[in-house]
Amino acid sequence: MSRLQKFIEDQLLLAEYKYDESVKQWTGWLPRFQGVYSQGKNIEIVRNELAEILEEQIFISVKDRKPIKGFSLKLSVNA
Question: DSSP for 15-30?
Fold first, then answer.
């Protein structure tokens, strides 16, 4: 398992889930990461979507050279 995968798995352990009776679906979010939120018919779907959204947010942060809460990454550029 890569460091990135481990980081995502660790963050998913902190996910919060709630069943929304009004729409008959589960919602889930990662409190440490703004905008990492999902909704689906079961927790497994929500968890998988949370992982994808967090991974995308990490890639965007790396591209934009912005810090990622709890994760450090050293990039090297080979010419």
Answer: -EEEEETTTTEEEEE-
pLDDT in tens, the chain (79 residues): 788 999 999 999 999 999 999 999 999 999 999 999 999 999 999 999 999 999 999 999 888 988 888 887 666 666 5
Stated pTM of the model: 0.85
What are the distances in angstroms from CA 11 to CA 20, 27, 31, 55? 22, 16, 9, 11
3-state secondary structure of 8: helix
Residue 31 neighbours by CB distance under 10 Å: 10
Q: Are 15 and 40 in contact (CB under 8 A)?
A: no
- d(Cα 51, Cα 54) in Å, to the nearest integer? 5
